[in-house]
Write a structure and sequence with these properties.
The structure is a single chain. By secondary structure, the protein is mainly α. It has two domains: 2-62 and 182-196, 3-Layer(aba) Sandwich (Glutaredoxin), CATH 3.40.30; 71-177, Up-down Bundle (Glutathione S-transferase Yfyf (Class Pi), Chain A, domain 2). Helices cover 52% and strands 4% of the residues. The chain has helices spanning 2-5, 22-27, 47-57, 71-93, 105-123, 136-151, 153-158, 162-173, 175-180; strands at residues 10-11, 36-37, 43-44, 195-196. Strand 2 and strand 3 form a beta hairpin. Helix 4 (71-93) packs antiparallel against helix 5, helix 4 runs parallel beside helix 6 (136-151) and helix 5 packs across helix 8 (162-173). The chain is globular.
C-alpha cells in the first residue's frame, strides 16, 4: 500500500515461502517477505523499512505528516503494535506453536484486547488514528488488527470496539487495499515479472 501511495513502479516476484526461489535467498538469506531489491542493489527486507523507503521517495498522501500528533507519536504506537500486541496475536492465532510456554489462547486474546481498546479510544471522533486523513500508522497497524479480527471473527464483531470495527471495515473496503490484493501466480526462475502495483 505504501509503494502504491508513493507511485513507485516495481516488478513483482510472488513467492511461496515453503518453496523459496534461490534468487530470493541470494538477495535476503533470512528468507522472509517482503524483500525489495532497489535499482542500485540495495536490499530492504522489513515491512516498516519498505514503507519508510517508499514514503521517503514520494509521500503523495502526506502519511508521514499526521493531522494530530507527530511522527514520533506514530512510531510509538507502531512499536506497541509490533511488540506486545504482535506477541499476543501470534499466541492467540497459533497457540500450538507456543505450547512450551503454557500459552492459554483466551489469555492472549485478553492481552491483545488491551491494545485494541486503546485504538478504539483513539479513533473516537475521528476516521483514522491521527485525524481525518490516513497516516503511516494506520497502514502499518491495520493488517495486524485484520489478522486478530479474522482469528475469531464472531468474537471480534460483537466486541465493544465500535470505532475500531468501523475503521477496519473502511480500510478493507478502500480502493487502495483492493488494488494491492489480487492474487498473483507463483514466480519461478525465468517467468515474467508482472508490474506492481497492478494497473486498471
Amino acid at each position: 500500500m505504501a509503494i502504491t501511495n508513493a507511485e513507485i513502479d516495481c516488478r513483482l516476484r510472488e513467492v511461496v515461502l515453503r518453496d523459496k526461489p534461490a534468487e530470493m535467498l541470494d538477495a535476503s538469506p533470512k528468507g522472509t517477505v517482503p524483500v525489495i531489491v532497489d535499482l542500485d542493489g540495495t536490499v530492504i527486507e522489513e515491512s516498516l523499512d519498505v514503507m519508510a523507503w517508499a514514503l521517503a521517495k514520494n509521500d503523495t498522501g502526506g502519511w508521514l505528516s499526521p493531522e494530530h500528533g507527530s511522527r514520533a507519536d506514530m512510531d510509538a504506537l507502531i512499536a506497541e503494535c509490533d511488540g506486545p500486541f504482535k506477541s499476543a496475536l501470534d499466541r492467540y492465532k497459533y497457540p500450538g506453536r507456543y505450547e512450551n510456554e503454557g500459552v492459554v489462547r483466551d489469555d492472549q486474546r485478553a492481552l491483545g484486547l488491551v491494545f485494541l481498546e486503546k485504538l478504539d479510544a483513539q479513533l473516537a471522533g475521528r476516521a483514522h488514528l491521527f485525524g481525518k486523513r490516513v497516516s503511516y500508522a494506520d497502514i502499518a497497524i491495520f493488517p495486524f488488527v485484520r489478522q486478530f479480527a479474522n482469528t475469531d471473527r464472531t468474537w471480534f464483531d460483537v466486541a465493544d470496539l465500535p470505532h475500531l470495527q468501523t475503521w477496519l471495515t473502511n480500510h478493507l473496503k478502500s480502493d487502495l487495499f483492493k488494488q494491492v490484493m489480487p492474487k498473483f501466480a507463483q514466480w519461478k526462475t525465468g517467468d515474467e515479472e508482472p508490474a506492481f502495483p497492478p494497473r486498471g
